[in-house]
Design goal:
heterodimer, A: Rossmann fold, 17% strand, B: alpha/beta, 3 domains, two-stranded antiparallel sheet, globular
Chain lengths: 133, 334
């Protein structure tokens, strides 16, 4: 039996727009992944702790509030602190190009903007984790 | 990290190691047996509470409040929440955590979501084993939340010490309540969303149904068959507790009743009896699993199978005689 890809999809911070996160969660489910959806208003601490307990391979964050330069690095830092730096953090939202470049430099996975076909996200994860089903 | 290193970190109390061992147990049947064997001496201390009921009854919300109440009483908590795997894509959306945010960062709580992956009895095929890992990790209470069930997904009754069946005021009339299956496995009934109309009527109907059973004891019937599991029938009379999980109303009373049930199980010897039954069915299951995995790896079976397929085709034997011949060969080979 191959290991299934486990993905945590979370909405950190204060914005209440979770349609995007839900659409992505649903698409990843349909791609055959196990998606743990944790809902709105999560702190980076909650997300890192959940990722750890669920033993996920990857965490997807949806940030539309503009706080991405805080929320992405903080989540990655906490994962590292908990000995789980191997868990990939990627995401999506309204993120300007130069911020994306900065987050990539800090080790963040791919960031997807508005209008991304969900198939692109599935392809990205499949390529990133070729040994998972 | 090797399994040995994981086990060492697990013993030192690492949550990460605990989570990874759960994945090993879920994904790697060959390694799982060795891991669980290693952890076995540390198991057997936790009280396992099963929460089951139809989709949308409020199970996850209730689990959060119950978890919180256990923490208030000084207990550490493990939660295993199961949601369905898609029969089409093999994927799953595990959404029980959405209702439990207040427990995420409590160091005394460990939550694990599981997809059923072929389990059809309301639990995942490895839920029991994942609970065993939490048990060995030292959790006092383990709360197991099933998928939203219908009437016949009853595995939880064999996996938990106390099973709570969660219903809502709209759950049905007296006839629904009298039906076999789900309504028979409850150690406690919980009428959730009890601030809605009809709650008292439902409570009364459940109590009437429970009363019918209590008045007609049948000494011949010491155990009953539920699916392929035999469940000990005890003289415990299930109580009905009203809750409103969103506000926490009634949850403390529910936990009081669960503790009373635990005392009853321990005091009446039913706990030992349950343990004996569950060890028995576990050994049977593990043996069958082991044999099944081993069976078609043997040359004596694989060679013979091809031969017998041809013989059935040309009419010199039948599938029934072929199966018997293979079984006899296997048993003779030892």
């Amino acid at each position: 039996m191959g290991k299934k890809l486990r993905v945590l999809v979370a909405k950190p911070g204060l914005d209440g727009h979770d349609r995007g996160a839900k659409v992505v969660a649903r698409a990843l489910r349909d791609a055959g992944f196990e998606v743990i959806y944790t809902g709105l208003h999560q702190t980076p601490e909650m997300i890192a702790e959940a990722a750890l307990q669920e033993d996920v391979d990857v965490v997807g964050l949806s940030v539309l509030s503009g706080a991405h330069m805080t929320l992405f690095p903080e989540t990655m830092r906490l994962l590292k602190e908990k000995g789980a730096a191997d868990i990939l953090v990627f995401g999506g939202g309204i993120i300007p190009r130069e911020d994306m470049e900065e987050l990539y430099k800090q080790g963040c996975g791919r960031l997807f903007g508005p209008g991304t076909p969900t198939a692109d996200i599935v392809t990205y994860l499949k390529e990133k984790f070729p040994d998972r089903i | 990290m090797t399994t040995r290193e994981l086990l060492a970190e697990f013993r030192a109390g690492s949550k990460r190691a605990c989570a990874r061992l759960m994945s090993v147990v879920e994904n790697e049947p060959d390694v799982a047996a060795a891991v669980l064997d290693e952890l076995y001496p540390m198991m057997g201390r936790s009280f396992r509470i099963g929460i089951t009921g139809p989709p949308g009854a409020g199970k996850s919300t209730l689990v959060e409040k119950l978890g919180r109440e256990c923490r208030n009483r000084g207990k550490t908590v493990g939660i295993v929440a199961v949601d369905p795997t898609s029969p089409f894509s093999g994927g799953a959306l595990l959404g029980d955590r959405v209702r439990m945010p207040s427990l995420f960062t409590d160091p005394g709580v460990f939550i694990r979501s599981m997809a059923t992956r072929g389990g059809v009895g309301g639990l995942a095929s490895r839920t029991k084993e994942v609970c065993d890992v939490l048990d060995a990790f030292g959790r006092d209470c383990i709360i197991i939340e099933t998928v939203g069930v219908g009437q016949v997904e009853l595995d939880i009754a064999g996996a938990a010490h106390s099973t709570v069946v969660v219903l809502v005021p709209e759950s049905g009339d007296a006839i629904q309540i009298m039906k076999a299956g789900l309504m028979e496995i409850a150690d406690l009934f919980c009428v959730n969303k009890s601030d809605r109309e009809g709650a008292d009527r439902l409570v009364m109907e459940i109590e009437t149904m429970v009363g019918m059973k209590a008045r007609t004891p049948n000494p011949e019937c010491r155990t009953s068959e539920v699916g392929d599991r035999r469940l000990a029938v005890s003289d415990w009379v299930p109580l009905v507790v009203k809750t409103v999980a969103t506000t926490g109303f009634g949850v403390s009373g529910l936990l009081d009743q669960l503790e009373a049930h635990r005392k009853h199980l321990e005091g009446s010897g039913a706990m030992t009896e349950r343990r004996r039954e569950s060890i028995r069915s576990e050994i049977v299951e593990l043996t069958e699993e082991w044999l099944r995995r081993d069976l078609w790896r043997r040359p004596v079976t694989t060679g013979r199978l091809n031969e017998l397929v041809e013989q059935v085709l040309d009419g010199s034997t039948t599938p029934y005689r072929a199966a018997e011949a293979i079984s006899r060969d296997v048993l003779a080979a030892g």
